[in-house]
Design brief:
By secondary structure, the protein is of the alpha+beta class. The protein folds into three domains: 3-114, Arc Repressor Mutant, subunit A (Orthogonal Bundle), CATH 1.10.10; 119-260, Tetratricopeptide repeat domain (Serine Threonine Protein Phosphatase 5, Tetratricopeptide repeat); 272-401, Alpha-Beta Plaits. The chain has helices at residues 3-7, 34-45, 53-60, 69-85, 118-131, 135-148, 161-187, 191-204, 209-221, 225-243, 249-260, 282-293, 316-320, 325-329, 334-348, 375-387, and strands spanning 9-12, 18-21, 24-25, 98-103, 106-111, 116-117, 272-274, 301-310, 354-359, 362-368, 395-401. A five-stranded mixed beta sheet has the order 7-9-10-8-11, sandwiched between helices. Helix 5 runs antiparallel to helix 6, helix 8 runs antiparallel to helix 9 (209-221) and helix 10 crosses helix 16 (375-387).
Length: 408
Amino acid sequence: MGEAGESALFVKMFGFFDITYKGKSIFLESASNARPLALLRFLLSQKDKVFVPETIAENVWPENEYLDEKKVIRTYIHRLRKIISQENVFKKDFSDQINILNVKGNYKLVLSDDVRMDTLEFELCRNVVSRELDDERLIETFNRVCSIYSGEFLEDSKFDHWVIMLRNYYLRSFCTMVGVILEHLERRQRFNEMIDICESSLQIYDLDEAINIFFIKAMIETNQVNNAMKHYSFITSKMYNTLSVTPSEKMREVYKRLKSTQVTENTASAPVEFENLDNSSLWLMINEAVKSQMKSTENQYSIGYVTIGESDIVSHEAIDGEPDDEAQRENYSGEEIQESLRQALEFALRKNDMYAITDELMAILVLCDAKPEFYANISSRICTSFYSRINKLKYKLNVRFCTAVSID
């Protein structure tokens, strides 16, 4: 950035609010500045708009009831103008650059053309993405957006209701921009660049399903099938636990493609799955299978049992006599139940662990050197992942472990 940029005011709305001049905050640290700066944040977020004092008070301090809102706002406007014009770190008058106008008793904030503001730069990037067709230009714009979007909109005003609406707007806009860029790169088959962009985006916000779908598809195209499967299990579980959201039809289609993909890679980091076992020769086959996979005869192995039965959770139907809509909607095939269990085990087990699904309602686990105090954690991981796909009102998962044994 040139000298003109360094000497201009910069308004930072993403992350923690600040206004800097020559790279340094203009604000003095003072408790008396809290309310004037809260007012400034509101006016900056709605710059060039005229507000009546009552609207300002209702948005900035909704918890207070003032007898004379016009007088209160007039007092804080006066205080704010003093901060901008003289009571700042530089003792410099910035009122030509940040000007609060009185419009017939109402108020409007305007910025001069030389003031930089991160939300304005964000919108410029959004416009570029909406019309740009060049790959490199889009990637460059994405990197610029990531540098601008340095945190949630006004993190230091996290619970203000007017902030929440704008915060959601900018988050949706960010995810939409990323989606447009990824869709363009996918058409150009630039899968490695897609992975880089997804990884950067998911560090900012990891619960956008569309970005996660692009991420998984790009990993499939670059022969990272195991990593794609692990990410699918991780993100679907997290979305369920955080947002109570189950995979959409698009996500389920990606999973079907993932399972049908024949590309293989090094599977050393995944638990070993044996083919379906019939119960008559179950223990002999487990014994032989474990010995074939053991790295050392000194390992201790714990046996786990996973069974699936009907849920004993009381549904709404039992309480009020009406059908439970959610439970009614969820009808799973044996294949879906078995596949959900397999995904849960892939997610929860470690690389030296083994498992076999004996039928759609039972699985046998063989855990390598698992300490008994970790059994509950392993069980919780299996159940959490399973219930992210299967409604717990329909089925109940039971997980039990035996003490460690040696296989000889």
